[in-house]
Amino acid sequence: MTDVIIAGGGPTGTMLASELRLHDVDVLVVEKDAEPSRLVRSLGLHPRSIEILDQRGLLDRFLAHGQPYPASARFAGIDKPWPPDLDTAHGYVLGIPQPMTDRLLAERAAELGAHIRRGQEITDLEQDDGGVTVALAAGERLRARWLVGCDGGRSVVRRRLGIEFPGEPAQTEWLLAELEVTMPPDELTAVMNEVRKTHRGFGIGPAGDGLHRAVVPAATVSEDRTTPPTMEELRTQLRAYAGTDFGVHSPRWLSRFTDATRLAERYRTGRVFLAGDAAHVHPPLGGQGLNLGIQDAFNLGWKLAAEVNGWAPDGMLDSYAAERRPIASDVLTTTRAQSVLISAEPGPQAVRKLLTELMDFDDVNRFLIEKVTGIGIRYDFGAGDERIGTRLRDIRLSRGRLYELMHRGRGLLLDQTGALSVAGWEDRVDHFVDTSDELAPPAVLLRPDGHVAWAGNDPRELLATLPRWFGNAAD
Question: Hey, which of 17, 126, 222, 428 would disulfide with 114, CB 3.0 to 4.6 Å?
Answer without folding.
Answer: 17
